[in-house]
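thought: user wants a sequence for this fold. calling inverse folding tool.
action: design(structure=
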């Protein structure tokens, strides 16, 4: 028997609970993993609360991230005792995920736990840090170097925002953080932001083109915020779009793209090819100051997940939430 968060569909909506399950109930897969840590992400919170139709089949164990140790494997790349890591691949949506003490998975979804990271550190980074690194790589590939000017990070208090600030600052960029929680200014400056702006300046309908300011941006908010970010990005700049906290809509015009040559780079972390994942995690090992994880992360036990999911959606959670599934 093992413990897991289980989401079931009822007559009045989804219901999440901590359940005791048997290994025979695990879905098919060629690698079985004893999970050490998972995380609580925005998508997990949507699944647990039922606020969005994230879950594609029921019952479902949420958790888009996990780190742990292989117990059984028929996959050629992994053997019992290997330390492994998973981000995305629809886990926690269409296949049972990491908010559980056990997982059975397709070995093609796994990568080795990067050297130098503990399971807890890898989950402190998780999909949020991995997505932030993919976003930074997109800026670099489009020639956005530190000397080009300021980089805007929206949704700055969230997981992706926090890691984006820490990574960009460490790489020498001047970072401006946009947040709706100005009381967190000290936290954001400690991560490396040079200036904090109120998200209200970006979140309302704006003009097709605004005064040029940003050399690049990492946006996890979407909607009017993303439109305004693009409208105020400098000639030849790049905006990496990786989230939709404000909304899925994009009420913008083509003006920034055809008049200023702005690039809108879409960042998908879920189905990213293995080589991109390995590159991103290799860069995280090189470029992330691991001492910052204490500032970004809090740890909870499995039985605290459901309550914390509601707090996360209410904007009451700062940075990253690591779940010690055995705690």
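)
observation: tool returned 327 residues.
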């Amino acid at each position: 028997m093992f413990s897991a968060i289980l989401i079931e569909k009822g007559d009045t909506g989804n219901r999440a609970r901590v359940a005791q399950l048997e290994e025979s109930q695990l879905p098919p897969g060629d690698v079985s993993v004893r999970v050490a840590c998972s995380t609580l992400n925005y998508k997990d919170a949507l699944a647990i609360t039922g606020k969005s139709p994230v879950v594609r089949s029921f019952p479902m164990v949420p958790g888009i991230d996990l780190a742990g140790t292989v117990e059984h494997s028929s996959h050629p790349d992994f053997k019992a005792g290997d330390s492994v890591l998973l981000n995305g691949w629809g886990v926690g949506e269409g296949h049972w995920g990491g908010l559980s003490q056990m997982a059975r998975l397709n070995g093609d979804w796994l990568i080795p736990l990067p050297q130098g990271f503990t399971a807890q550190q890898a989950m402190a980074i998780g999909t949020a840090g991995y997505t932030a690194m993919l976003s930074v790589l997109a800026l670099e590939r489009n020639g956005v170097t530190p000397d080009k000017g300021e980089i805007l990070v929206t949704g700055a208090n969230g997981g992706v925002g926090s890691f984006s600030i820490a990574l960009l600052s460490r790489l020498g960029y001047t970072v401006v953080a946009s947040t709706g929680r100005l009381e967190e200014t000290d936290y954001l400056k400690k991560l490396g932001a040079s200036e904090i702006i109120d998200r209200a300046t970006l979140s309302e309908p704006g003009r097709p083109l605004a005064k040029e300011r940003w050399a690049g941006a990492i946006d996890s908010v979407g909607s009017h915020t993303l439109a305004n970010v693009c409208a105020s990005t400098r000639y030849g700049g790049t905006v990496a779009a990786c989230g939709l906290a404000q909304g899925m809509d994009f009420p913008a015009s083509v003006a920034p793209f055809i008049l200023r040559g702005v690039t809108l780079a879409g960042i998908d972390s879920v189905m990213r090819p293995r080589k991109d994942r390995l590159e991103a995690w290799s860069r995280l090992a090189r470029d992330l100051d691991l001492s910052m994880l204490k500032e970004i992360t809090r740890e909870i036990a499995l039985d605290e997940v459901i309550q914390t999911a509601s707090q996360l959606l209410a904007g009451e959670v700062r940075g990253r939430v690591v779940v010690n599934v055995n705690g």
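thought: summarizing for user.
answer: Here is the designed sequence. The mean pLDDT is 96.
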